[in-house]
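hey can u check if this looks right to u? its 766 residues, i copy pasted from the old doc so theres a chance i mangled smth
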Amino acid sequence: MTEENERQTEQQRVDYVTKQVANQIETSQALFDQAHHETRMVDQNYSDNASVNLYEVDDAMETNAMIEQQRQLVARSYESETILKHQLETLSNLKKSPYFGRIDIKDPGEVTPESLYIGVASLMNADKTDFLIYDWRAPVAGIYYNGNLGDVTYPTPAGSQTTQLVKKRQFTIKDGRIANMFDTNETVGDEMLQAALGEQNDQYMQNIVATIQKEQNDIIRDTASDLLLVQGVAGSGKTSAILQRIAYLLYHSRASLNADQIVLFSPNRLFSNYISEVLPSLGERNMRQVTLAEFLSRRFEGLDVQTLFERYEDEQTNGISNQVAQNFLENAECMHAVEKYCQKLTTEQVKFSNIMFEGRIFFTADHVRKIFAKFPENMAIADKILATKNALIKELKQRIKIEAKSEWISEAVSQLNSEDLHNLLGNKKSEEFETEDELLDYVSTRLATKRLRIVYDAIYNTYFFDPYAQYSEFLSHQQPTGVTSNSWKEIITNFKQEIEYHRISLMYCPSLLFLRDLITGSGQNRQLEYVFIDEMQDYSTAALIYLKHVFPKAKFTILGDSEQALFKEIEVPQQLLHRLSTALAAKRPNLITLNRSYRSTTEITNFAKSLLPDGDQIMPFNRHGDLPRIILRYSKADATDALINEVVTQSKNAETVAILTKNATQAHEVYQQLHQIDGAKLLTDTDRVLPTGILIMPIYLAKGLEFDAVIAYDVSATNYSDPRSTGILYTIASRAMHQLTLLSIGAACPIITDEQEKLLQIEHSI
C-alpha cells in the first residue's frame, strides 16, 4: 500500500471514530440534561422538606428520616451529573484529536497482527464489544512508549505478557484531520517532538501524553518505589512527567486511591496555576497543592513564617549572619539531635505553661507538671502528654460543675434572653423540669460548659505545653562545631525575639516542629498515599526529614535540578541524591536521571549548559534557532533604552516575554522603566495567575515556568558576583524557549567567560 493510500485509510478510521464520538456525545448530553433536571427537582424537594417546622416529636422523627432520605437522593443525583459531565468533557477532547499513536502487535500463535490505537482516554464502540481507543495508561499502551520493534514484554494484572511489536505509528490529529503521520522505532520521533516543542507558550502547561519519552515513561509507571528521586536538567520534562505520573497512579489504583490522598509541594502560586489544567485535560481531578510556606504557616498558627523568597531577599540585602549555624539547623544532624533530646527529657525539663481563661489562670503550669509526673518514668513522653491531657479534661468536667454555681455564671444566666435560653436548652423544654431550681441548674451547667469550651480547646490542642521555651532549651544544649559561644547565644536570642513578635525564621521551622510533634504525639497524617516535592534543591534536608515524619505512610517522589540552586551554592547531583536517600531512609529507592533538555533551542541550551561545571552532561534537543544575544551598555540610560527596544521587538513575535531579575527590588526598577509599555505586568509572590504578554519578575518566581522569550536583566559583574550567581544565571537562561537576550550594565559578570561569549551574539554600545 502506498503512503498516500495508507494516509487515506487512516483518515477514514479517524472519520469513523470521530463519528462514534459525536454519537456518544449526543447520547451523553441527553443523559446529562436529564440528570441535571432531576438534580434540580430533588434539590428543590430537599429544600422544601428541610424548611418544615418541627413541633411534635413524632413529626420531627418522621421529617428527619425524610430529610436524610432526600439528602442521599441529592448526593446521588449530583454524583450522576458529575460523572456525565466528566464523560462529556472527555468525549469533547477525543472529538478534536481521538488518538496520537498506533501499535500493531502479534501475540504468540497469531498470524495477523492486531492494531491498537492509543489516546488520552479509552473509547469503546457503540456495542461495547471492541476498544476503538486505548487509554495511554493501560498496561498494553506501555509498549508504545517503551517498546522497539520486535519481541517486547509488558506487565498485565495477570503477570508479564510477551508479544511482537510489528509497527509503531504516530499521528498529529487536529480537529478530526490527520496533520502528520509517520512510522518510527523510537518512543516519539523527532518530527513529532519538533512540531510540539516549536509551538508558542501559553499560560498553562500542556499534557505531554503524545510525546512522552522512554525515560519519562519509567517515571510515570513506577509503582514500586517508596522514594523516587528524579534529577532532571532544566527543560527535561520532569514536572510534566510527574503530573502524568499522578494521572497514571489515579488510573492504576482507581479503587483505592483518590486525588485527596496526593499532595504536591510546588515552588510558588504562579507555578500551581501554570500546571492546574494538566490533570483535568486527562480526565482527572487535581491533587492538593501547597507551597512550603503555606504548609508551615498552617502548622504555626498565629506566627508569621518567613518564606524562601523573603529569606533570599533578606540575604541579598543584609547577607547571611551565620552560615555555619544555619547549615546545622537545616541538616540531618540537627533533626537527629532533636530525637535524642526528646527521648531523654525528664519531668523537670518539660516546659509547661498556664492555661488561661478570660485573663485569669485556670490551670497552673505547676499543676499540669504534677499530673504529668504521676505517670511512669519509662512511659513514652507523647503517651504521658496524652494521659495528662485526658486527666485535665476530667478535671475540667469537675470544674464546670463548680463554675456552674459561681457568681459570674449566675449573673450571666440572669441576663439571658428567650432566644439564648432556647439555644441552651437544646432539645429540652422548660416544662420538662419539675422545679425552677432544676431548670436553673441545667441552664447554668450548659452555659458554664459553653463558656469554658475555650479551656477544653486549649487542653485538646496541648496549649499547656510550651514548644518555644522547650526549643530554646534544646538549642542551649547544642552549639555546633565552628560556631562560637557568643554567636550561638545570638542565634537563641534571635529566636526568642522573633517569637515575641510572632515571627519565625525558616531555618528554625523543621527542627522546632519536629520537637513539638515528638513531644505531643501530634502532627502526623497517615491518610496521605503520595507526596510529590518539586524543586527539591531548594528544600533543606531538615525540611524533607520533617515532611517524611508528617506523612509516614506516603510514598515520596522528589524532583528537581541541583544546578538550579537559587538559595544556596550548586551541589553536585550525586551528592544531593546521596544526601536525600540517606536522610529519608528509603527501603525501595529509585533514581531516574533526565539529561536531555527539550524546552529551549539547541543554541540556548548550549549557552546555558556552558555556565555549569558539569554542563557537558546536558544534551540539547535538535531544534535550532537564533544564537542568544548579550547587549552591553555602560550607562543606566543607555541600558534602559536598549531594554525598551528589546522588549518592543520581542513582543511582536512572542506570546510571553519575561524580563527576569535577580531580586524583587530590581524587578520594581525594571517595571518603572517599562510600565508605560502596553501589557507590561509586574509579578510578585502574591500573584496566583500567570498572564501572557510582557512579564517582569524576580527569578525565584519563574521556577518551573517557561517563556517564549527571556531577557536577563543586568548580568554585569557588579550584579552577579557571589557564588550563587552561576545557579541563578543558569536558571534564567533555561527559562527561554525560543529567544534569549542578556542585558549587562557595564562589563559582563566573570561567569560569562571568553568561552561562553563564543556562543553569543555580542552587541556593544554604539
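Residues 250 and 257 are 6 Å apart (CA to CA).
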